[in-house]
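I have been asked to look over a protein record a colleague put together. Alongside the sequence sits a line of tokens, each denoting a local backbone shape. Please read both lines and tell me whether the tokens look consistent with the sequence. I do not need a full report, just your reasoning and any doubts. I have pasted the whole thing underneath without changing anything.
>
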Amino acid sequence: MFHDSPKVKILNILLPALIYLGAGAIAEFLGVLYGYLWRPDQVPPGFFTYLSYAHMKGEAVLLLIRAALCIPVFIWLYRKDAIRIDAEIYRQRSVKERPEFFEKKQVSVKDVLFSLLAGAGLSLFLNLAFRLAGISYTGAVSGLYQEGSGTGLSFVCLLILNILIGPVSEELMHRGLVYRRMRTYSLRIAAILVSSLIFGLLHGDLIAGSYAFILGIVLADVYEWTGSLLCSVLCHLAANAGAVLISAVSSVDRVVSANSVVFLIAGGLVFALGLLGLVIKTSPFFFRGSSKGDT
């Protein structure tokens, strides 16, 4: 749709990630400053020791600060992009030249339900597949909960961080900005791969990054099929909720661990049901036009 120069395209795509990293650096600096000014008696002097202290005592707080800094900027950029897209569509004055992805779509109850099913099913399937392969991904999530409980942060606060704030900020960035900006250059497959790759890289390690890359592909498809950032947020929310239940709730973990294969199959079936529901609901090959006005 847009015909920006290659340099502008690259900057537009990478800018959200740079903002995310910059907000993280500010959060880290505030953590170090806190250790230096208010806890000097508990931490040996030195930048890296203060940084380690900040992570050990306030990982969740650092994540909250980063999200608080990012979300307003991402919302502003998202709205700015929306204005630019609408102006470009109006300028072209031709429906034939407008990619279907940018058509205004009404979110239905079915969209919401299938998005939640896809996210929850994928989370269960991937976590158990990783576990059966001897790879532990949810351990990092469990560690965050243990760390938070030791610093007075309530379980509810950490739930909000992982199940609400995280999905909102990450979907605004990866699907609302990176993916949608690439789609304005009519690069659907590249948009899916690049946005998912950035999503994976920013998770910091190979295991979590691999999980996030696969999840990112599904989230981009959900956003593409429904045309709604809300649906990708809900899908992401359901995926995070599944990971939290498996890793942080011991009773759930015991039941799932004792029946890993059964839950692996169940997760795959739920994921397939949610994905198939979205495809049937939004594909022009099934029930043409059914995605509009369906409540």
In short: The chain has one domain: 6-282. The longest helix spans residues 47-92. The chain is about 80% helix and 0% strand. Residues 55 and 62 are 8 Å apart (CA to CA).
